[in-house]
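Support case: HKS complex. Customer-provided input:
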Amino acid sequence: MRIHILGSGAGGGFPQWNCNCRNCDGFRKGTIRARRRTQSSIAVSSDSLNWVLFNASPDILAQLHALPAMQPARAVRDTGIRGIVLIDSQIDHTTGLLMLRECTRPLRVYCTEAVYEDLTTGNPICDVLSHFCTVDWQPIRFNGAGCTFTVPGVERLCLAAHPLKSKAPPYSPHRNHPHVGDTIGVVIEDLTTGGRLFYAPGLGEMEPHVLPLMRNADCVLVDGTFWREDEMAAAGIADKRSRELGHLPQSGPGGIIEVLAPLSRPRKILIHINNTNPILDEDSPERAELTRAGIEVSHDGMEIAL
Ligand code: HKS
Ligand code: ZN
Ligand code: ZN
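Agent response - structure generated as follows:
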């Protein structure tokens, strides 16, 4: 399978429009070595013609322009997107649906009931979209274990969704009452090559079922939002801690570096990186520490073959 990183940044992207933290200011002034990043989304295909989009970011139009394979041009109106999987209902993962409103065929959207509820109540973008096109909701339901499904046209990819603990968005009725399905991780397996990806851009806690999913993958593409538990406070931005926001930090006890350390099989890559994260500075000691731990940092346009 071919995995294309459409956007490697967290909400707001990098640099963030209103931010003058060390990274954002340094990037604008050219005093640090770092890459611009759009908001969190990937596209996966087994034939480079039919794609599954994971998350629809507010930057989706620019991201699609940057990946010409997404437009196969077989008809006057066409797209390579055969289905969209939403891992949560956050603004950075769902707002792009509004930018796809011109679609002439039904938009197949795979998400849990918890996410669909948010998108029809607190942030009713599915209701708004229904005035422009047909949203064909494909519910992801859990019966004890993960939920396995395929997307028509992309049958060589087998998808298995698993519930994860992270955080529902501020407008969600579940914000302070977590529901199973507020956030998911997905194992994507290519039935032709046997390659397996574990994708989880929102990972707030290591529950017992998560480590085996990582261990059995050829590549883990996981939450890279914050380096430190108190990163936002240390930058003088907000007092919310990383885990409270639904993101395990990389450093510290129980952080992503420790979690990934014992895994020998998978390639380890971070995604959904916040503008404040020191790993964005390619010359930072934190980035060097990641490299020593065998962990890569994804960037917009990066391609992974499994
Ligand atoms: C900034 C933002 C930080 C940021 C935080 C989160 C909070 C949120 C919630 C996130 C993200 C970006 N870029 N989504 O000010 O630096 O309260 O639910 O997911 O993408 S977590
Ligand atoms: Zn986010
Ligand atoms: Zn910043």
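The chain has one domain: 2-305.

Case will auto-close in a few days if no follow-up is received.
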